């Protein structure tokens, strides 16, 4: 791989397992695992749903972009779970393309919705039909950014993490 592969970014729709799998990859590879949403919540002192409610989605998207830009300056190795919408911002796409090995966790929208539905995710709370439309809109973006895609529909998070780690090690050696 021509770009740096010492920073690994997990992208994909809500419910794909990015947060859980990043933790597992971090543990198995003995590298730090960061979660963009957690970093934003810590910095802001509010949960994501509260940030959406108080400041709106556009404000949250700027926070995602700024936080990702900050992380891209940190030396690797580390693994980062993005939020599902964090790879939509054009500036974030540039950062991902130039500073990260990018893995897309993919599954059909129905599967992801079942996993994502709940009060913590304001956009999943808008219902299955909105979720599916959003997933279809974002699909080409994830596809364009990904160095590798993994189908997470019917394999457990532990196995997803093992597959990704093995791919990452291969990418680092390439
Ligand atoms: N491969 C998987 N198979 C089944 N459930 C999973 C898998 N990966 C994650 N989950 C579960 O799905 C939910 C969403 O996972 P999470 O890591 O928060 O996803 P994301 O960060 O992509 O939104 C959690 O309850 C998690 O335990
Ligand atoms: O897809 C999105 O727009 C969002 C995904 C969430 O993260 P996960 O993908 O980790 O659930 C979180 O950033 C926020 O609720 C918005
Ligand atoms: Mg997450």
Keywords for this structure?
amino-acid biosynthesis; binds adenosine-5'-diphosphate; alpha/beta; 174 residues; binds magnesium ion; Rossmann fold; five-stranded parallel sheet; ATP binding
Report what the structure shows.
By secondary structure, the protein is of the alpha/beta class. It has a single domain, classed as P-loop containing nucleotide triphosphate hydrolases (Rossmann fold), CATH 3.40.50. Helix content is 56%, strand content 13%. The protein has helices spanning 18-29, 36-44, 48-55, 57-72, 90-99, 109-116, 128-145, 157-173; strands at 7-11, 33-35, 78-81, 101-106, 148-151. A five-stranded parallel sheet has the order 2-3-1-4-5, sandwiched between helices. Helix 3 (48-55) packs across helix 4. It is globular and about 45 Å long. The termini are close together. The model has no long low-confidence stretch (mean pLDDT 95). Bound molecules: adenosine-5'-diphosphate (ADP), shikimate-3-phosphate and magnesium ion. Residues 18-19, 37, 81, 83 line the site of magnesium ion (MG). Adenosine-5'-diphosphate (ADP) binds at residues 14-20, 81, 115-116, 152, 155-157, 160.
């Amino acid at each position: 791989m021509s770009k740096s592969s010492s920073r690994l970014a997990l992208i994909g729709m809500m419910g794909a397992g990015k947060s859980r799998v990043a933790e597992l990859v971090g543990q198995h590879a003995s590298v730090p695992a960061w979660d963009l949403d957690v970093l934003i919540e810590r910095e802001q002192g509010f949960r994501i749903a509260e940030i959406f409610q108080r400041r709106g989605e556009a404000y949250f998207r700027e926070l995602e972009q700024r936080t990702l830009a900050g992380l891209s300056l940190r030396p690797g190795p580390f693994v980062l779970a993005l939020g599902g919408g964090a790879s939509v911002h054009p500036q974030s796409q540039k950062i991902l393309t130039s500073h990260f090995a990018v893995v897309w966790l993919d599954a059909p929208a129905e599967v992801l919705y079942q996993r994502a539905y709940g009060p913590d995710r304001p956009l999943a709370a808008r219902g299955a039909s909105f979720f599916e439309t959003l997933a279809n809109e974002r699909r080409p973006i994830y596809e364009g950014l990904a160095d590798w895609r993994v189908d997470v529909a019917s394999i457990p998070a532990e196995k997803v993490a093992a597959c990704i780690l093995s791919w990452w090690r291969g990418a680092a050696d390439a």
